[in-house]
Amino acid sequence: MIDIDRLSSGFATWMAGQNFQNPYSPATIRIYGHTVRRFLEYSGSDGVLDISEAGIHIVRKFVTNGIDGTISPKSTQTVRISAIVLFFDYLESEGAVLMNQARIFLDDQKRKRGGQGGKPATRLKPVLEWDEIDRLAFESGRLESIAGIRDAALVGLILDTGLRASEVCALTTANGESYLTGRLRVIGKGNKERLVRFEASHASRMQSWFRMRHRIRAPNERLFVTDQGNPLTIGVLYMIVKRLLERTGIKKAQQGPHLLRHTAASIWLANGVELKQVQENLGHSNIGTTSRHLHLLAK
User: Fold this and answer.
1) Which of 101, 196, 232, 289 could staple 224 via S-S, CB 3.0–4.6 A?
2) Which residues 6+ apart lie within 8 Å of 164 measured at CB?
3) What are the chain's domains?
4) Is the pLDDT of residue 298 over 80?
5) What's the distance, CA 200 to chain centroid?
6) Quick one: which of 175, 165, 188, 161 has its CA closest to 223?
7) Residue 103 Cα distances to 41, 106, 259, angstroms
């Protein structure tokens, strides 16, 4: 029988250790750990008694199987395969398996997508168009409730700064004051600090939220909280953005805060900000990643 607790715990410890040049964030460790635990449970239910017996067919079924026999969404498949590839890397390092079955599956998928030569197809980053940005800004600022004022400030801040969801949720009220100056220091992936420089185009919305935030009794200094004063989580942030997009009638391949992050990068580049500065703002280690946002928005 597969020792799920031991393998899950060992994998989480390995991810959090000194094994990587760019360490994984706590959010990634949590998501990958949950995915691997589900993979182990799935393998056990399929008759696998030892993890070394989990072949490519088990990986394929786990990655692609959705609810009630359907095919799982591409976004779900991406998270699953990323987590399982890393898990098999861990197993290889421990001598528990001889080959990374998940990587074999991934390479096979790339060959199928890319055809001759095995190069996968390239997709442009989804971003909001100028009119969609205006529509979203209008919709997010339409309600005068606590949540409405907060959400307007949230959307404005991400469009101005391009912060990751985890970085937004970790902001304090002091960070909010810094946002108004157009300079914001944040701790990003790998516990690395960076300075984000931008134009605070939505400063008035943040000031409105400040006035409301000071009225909310909260046992913390987090900038964005719920009506009850609890810190905003990544999951709640995702649902806020997703629902605003739905209310606005905007349909994109991405529906959460990362869509706004891509849009922020594209706005900067369309407005003539140097590519190197955009890279630094986003916290990208590779400028090639940043360059994918070029020309996605016309000035």
Assistant:
1) 232
2) 188, 189, 257, 258, 261, 283
3) 4-118 (1.10.150.130), 130-291 (1.10.443.10)
4) no
5) 23
6) 175
7) 20, 5, 28
